[in-house]
């Protein structure tokens, strides 16, 4: 969120000493039964078995080239799903990619049953996502991205990955902490009756409210975030930090840092001033449409249509590859919201409070 005018741009540089107090324990269960098995089973049904089965059902009524075209896209979607297995929130997209070609074949072959995956596949992928990331203490050992909603109005959500923690939806440009540089993750509470504010680099911040919160310090950065179960979040972050790979490689000087920040803050790459994933979506639509034209066109009989199909397919591939390159650079930019050599973002000592109303809790192991 944009910083209110009355709120400071940076947190206080020093804070009072404070001791840990007893707090609420985690309410999450120890484990979710068959978490991985159930999630991947639902995903396989939605992305592979259901589209493939209904494509086989339409086999007698559809032209052979159309069937092979749809089967190829189901295989591509299945491969992307397996490569992206650590990020269940994107599984719905791969389910749609697998479901659209069989639906096109069903329309052209007048087989209404082929439209079922358009609805069922995304629902199954969403159920798989929810089951795979359902809060429990065993998530500390799972190699999967965990979404944690922030417990404050308009606060966004926390994405806990294997090597980073990302703050998404709370600012125009996502911010990230490298887990390999984690100093500590501290559960606690914000006391008082008034809502507060935690500033972030770039003039943004997250709203705070009295109640449970988690404090994360990594490198020079520090976050204070309201979450429903801070003991669970802190325990997961601490455990993943022990196995995280280092992610920092620069920028080395202020000019390079400014160039990186200006590129990342461009409207077409920010969340609220543009649509950062437009290249992937438009590229996917062009690639699917172009290859459909190729599958239904004879190059000798319809040269113009064949050229259009080739151009659309190639342009779709170029846009998708451009998105992947930009996404990798954005992942890098998210780690560097502070310029090189910056001082610590507020009071970062474990036994001192970054805000006057902060009270840490005794840590609880997952």
Verbal overview:
The chain crosses the membrane at residues 38-59, 66-83, 103-127, 278-298, 304-324. The protein is of the alpha+beta class. The chain folds into 3 domains: 33-133; 137-248 and 337-360, Roll (PH-domain like), CATH 2.30.29; 250-334, no CATH class. The chain is 41% helix and 14% strand. The protein has helices at residues 35-57, 64-83, 91-109, 116-132, 230-241, 254-264, 278-295, 303-333; strands spanning 146-149, 157-160, 164-168, 175-178, 182-190, 196-200, 204-208, 211-218, 221-225, 358-360. It has a 4-stranded antiparallel sheet with strand order 1-2-3-4, with helices on one face. The chain has a 4-stranded antiparallel sheet with strand order 9-8-5-10. A hairpin with a 3-residue loop joins strand 6 and strand 7. The longest helix has 31 residues, at 303-333.
Layout of strands and helices, then pairs:
Layout: H1 35-57, H2 64-83, H3 91-109, H4 116-132, E1 146-149, E2 157-160, E3 164-168, E4 175-178, E5 182-190, E6 196-200, E7 204-208, E8 211-218, E9 221-225, H5 230-241, H6 254-264, H7 278-295, H8 303-333, E10 358-360
Antiparallel strand pairs: 1-2, 2-3, 3-4, 5-8, 5-10, 6-7, 8-9
Please tag this protein with its features.
single chain, 366 residues, alpha+beta, PH-domain like, four-stranded antiparallel beta sheet, 41% helix, 14% strand, elongated, transmembrane, membrane, transmembrane helix
